[in-house]
Amino acid sequence: MTTSTVGLAPATTALTRRPRRRLPFSPWHLLLVPVALLFMLPFVEMFLTSLTPASDINRFPPAFLPSHLTLSGYEKLFAESSILRWLLNTAVVSATSIVSHLVLCSLAGYGFARLRFPGRTFGFLAILATIMIPSQLLMIPTYVMFAKLGLVNNLGAAIVPWLASAFGIFLMRQFFLSLPAELEEAGRIDGCSRLQVFFRIVLPLARPAMATLAIFTLLGSWNDLVWPLVAINDEQNFTLQLGLTNFQGTRRTDWSLLMAGNVVATLPLMLLFLLAQKQFVATMASAGLKG
Amino acid sequence: MTTLGVRSRPQTAPTRRPRRRLTGEALAGWGFVAPALVVVGGLTLFPGIWALVLSFRSWDGFSPPTAVGTQNYQDLLTDAALGGAVLHTLLYTVMFVPASLLLGLLLATALNRRIRFIGLYRTAVFVPFVASAAATGILTTYLFSPQFGLVNNVLRVLHLPQQGWLEDSHQAMVVITIMSLWGQAAFTTVIYLAALQDIPGETIEAARIDGAGSAQIFWRVVWPQLRPVTTFVGIYQTLQAVQLFDLVYATTRGGPLDATQTIVYQIWTTAFQKLQFGYGSAVAYALFFVTLAVTVVVTLAQRRAGRTA
């Protein structure tokens, strides 16, 4: 299978901008304009509904545009739910996951790529094998295990499964393998220790791979629903996704409020995507090529 | 693998570097990999084996577990609810996988142009990828609501009949497929886009000079290059599709009339609502083995086809 970092290159170059030139009108616009509008429409509807007064939504037949815009959906959301708490919980889970992923996976990836030690091949194959184990197989024993350790129903439960991943180790190893070893040898000759070489020479070069890993971890931990659903019951410890779906069950008709919640849950990642689109797309590509 | 390592060590050890050096390297090596290995192993290998043990037991999580041999696996063969879930999962897979490949190929071809606003088009197609299943689910419920939904409202204006969508057991899975495609289109598109850009422009140019039409160029030049990618993405998307859960939970919760009950939804209810941890584990293992077998067979068949072609 394709190695991820090698696979990254074409995806990244695919999206680098070429020098601006006057381009003739292309018939492809006729296809792309409606496609782009269709893809954006659900988001437009989400923002619009979050600003629509409830009286408009419940009118029949529904209008396409609200009679006026209101923030009452957001007001109700912040007043009647613990959304800020959930947002904070999710931010804590994601931030911890990212930091831990970056530290543990780059250390392990470097170890597997560069250091020779007994059991290395076996350890790496064991890691690769775990990629094939589906999460629903692990859900039940992991829950029981966490329950016995007293780890359920708190924020730790949501964090622990995201501390490191086989995919992360694999991604970082592939990246380190692609780095020329001469740089590190030069550092070793100059008297740096293994760790010094790692932190001073290797890690600064690994920024693109680490950005990819950070985004992958952010997407996964921020949007995770199944595991928090299994492990957390206490509303104070809900993540955003869990809070939203729980809300949906009880407040099915309060659409401006639900959409306001959706906006709060989606907007941070959406803005980040717009800022770091190139890196996001490289991450998508590497997620697909991880096998 | 273990036996191999054990066997080779005594033979090669004498020829290796001096022992002290080796232990230093070994310590450093394990020091680098151990923390991540403990986390990943502890959260996958260990529970994976435990799940296998559990699948031969009957256990509610509180009272002592009883060994039931292969009873759980026998039960799942005659479980009517599970049979329904298998059918719904297959239905979703059959709709989702080919559609996602086709959509990805079409979008990648369209987005692989040097035209104005191409960045905007790409952004529009890629951005739904960051929306969570929970948010997408709530959005789906609203867009396809028979009363307030935009989709029925458009149908009304066009004087077309109103639909029940998620509230109609024949349409619910179709709606879920449509919204999965919306959220996941970016994925296949990116992969195909990368593959398309790997095809040298000269090859296509040469074919054009030789007088090949667009259709000929696609089938004779482009498609053969895309085939391995298609196999891989097809398998990957199939594995994703048979694990459908989030979007079902966030929209229909298995309804209406169990029409969107999927295999993983069954595993979740069996384990965490009915507290049948043993049976749930057996269903999860059965799913794992079947998908593994299918993946291996498809990969081998593709490899053989690739060799003879």
N-to-C span of chain B? 35 Å
SSE string of chain A, helices as H and strands as E: HHHHHHHHHHHHHHHH
**Sheet having the most strands of chain A:** none
Portion of residues within helices of chain B:
over 70%
Helix and strand run of chain B:
HHHEEHHHHHHHHHHH
Question: Biggest sheet of chain B, in brief?
Answer: 2 strands, antiparallel
Strand order of the largest sheet of chain B: 1-2
The multimeric state of the shown protein is heterodimer
CATH homology-level superfamily of chain A: MetI-like
Count of folded domains of chain A: 1
Count all strands of chain B and give the number.
Answer: 2
Topology, element by element:
The complex is a heterodimer of chains A (291) and B (309).
Chain A: H1 4-15, H2 28-50, H3 54-57, H4 72-80, H5 83-114, H6 120-131, H7 135-148, H8 155-159, H9 166-178, H10 182-189, H11 194-205, H12 207-223, H13 226-231, H14 240-250, H15 255-275, H16 277-288
Chain B: H1 2-12, H2 19-43, H3 45-54, E1 57-58, E2 66-67, H4 71-78, H5 80-111, H6 118-126, H7 133-143, H8 150-157, H9 172-198, H10 201-209, H11 214-242, H12 246-251, H13 263-272, H14 277-308
Antiparallel strand pairs in B: 1-2
Helix pairs in contact in B: 2-3, 3-14, 4-14, 5-9, 5-11, 7-9, 9-11, 10-11, 11-14, 13-14
State the gist of this model.
Chain B: It is found in: Cell membrane. The complex is a heterodimer of chains A (291) and B (309). Chain A is mainly alpha-helical and 291 residues long.
Task: Write out key terms for the chains shown.
heterodimer; A: 291 residues; mainly alpha; MetI-like fold; 16 helices; globular; disordered N terminus; B: 309 residues; 14 helices; 2 strands; transmembrane helix (chain B); cell membrane (chain B); ABC_transporter_permease (chain B); transport (chain B); MetI-like_sf (chain B)
